[in-house]
Design brief:
single chain; 260 residues; mainly beta; Porin; 12-stranded antiparallel β-barrel; 1 helix; 55% strand
């Protein structure tokens, strides 16, 4: 299935028209962009991750996919899905479990444009739908989540993005509070790089703090590829991860022809 998705995505690349501004994406970092996509634009962001919980146990996400559709200047629809395989090194028989995580349906709303010290700000809200996932990962209740995304343009080549928000797990009423902080750097016409700190805290649990870094290359204004990696800093974190991905956008509005 993942190979079919990759093939279809690459074929779509040939039908992508040019636009003036470069594509803005939520990947490869954990910081969601404050930029909304334009009306009638479909944007797809795909990644393949290896997340190591220890030297022997890991999870492959193959793939994670985020679909966005622009409804107007201030609103976009969002759908996220993940297909994963979890490997546990058990003796004498290792265990592999493959599953679809529940779909996350949501949207993004523009709040403020950047002005002086005020950052460009948007709000992202979503709801995880337990019935849409594999039985082994279904939750008792639908799980809501939200995030405020902020973005500063420090210069023509340097930007700063940061998020904060909360997520529920569908089992308890205790939220998981999250944060991200990521300076980004445009390098020439086609390269982008970033550094990032991110994590989460939850009542009566150990905090989860991490750092990561990565870069992206713009094949065109509408298509880019990326590579990133990160390490955990606390006891409750993943040991490390590595991710490879690509993103593209397509104008879904049909071109109108005029009759003479």
């Amino acid at each position: 299935m993942r190979y079919r998705l990759l093939l279809v995505s690459l074929l779509l690349f040939y039908f992508i028209g040019s636009t003036q501004e470069k594509i803005e994406t939520d990947r490869p970092d954990q910081t969601e962009t404050a930029v909304l996509i334009d009306k009638n634009i479909l944007q797809v962001e795909v990644g393949f991750n290896k997340e190591n919980a220890s030297d022997e146990n890991y999870t492959l996400v193959h793939p994670t996919a985020l679909f966005k559709y622009g409804l107007g200047k201030r609103v976009e629809l969002r759908l996220e899905t993940n297909y994963a395989t979890e490997y546990m090194h058990l003796i004498p028989n290792p265990k592999e479990t493959t599953y679809f995580e529940p779909l996350i349906l949501g949207g993004k709303i523009a709040l403020f444009e950047e002005k002086g010290c005020r950052p460009k700000t948007t709000f992202i809200g979503g709801l995880s739908l337990p019935f849409s996932g594999s039985r082994i990962v279904r939750t008792t209740h639908a799980a809501p989540g939200f995030r405020f995304t902020m973005q500063h343009s420090l210069s023509e080549t340097i930007g700063l993005g940061y998020n904060f928000g909360g997520e529920w797990d569908g089992e308890t009423s205790t939220p998981n509070w999250s944060y991200t902080f990521a300076p980004g750097f445009n390098i020439g016409e086609r390269w982008y790089a970033y550094l990032e700190a991110f994590g989460s805290v939850r009542k009566e649990e150990s905090p989860d703090h991490n750092v990561d870094a990565g870069f992206a290359y713009f094949i065109s204004n509408n298509f880019k590829v990326d590579l990133s990696c990160g390490i955990g800093l606390s006891e409750n974190s993943l040991k490390n991860y590595v991710a490879l991905g690509f993103s593209f956008r397509v104008n879904m509005k049909k071109k109108q022809t005029t009759k003479e």
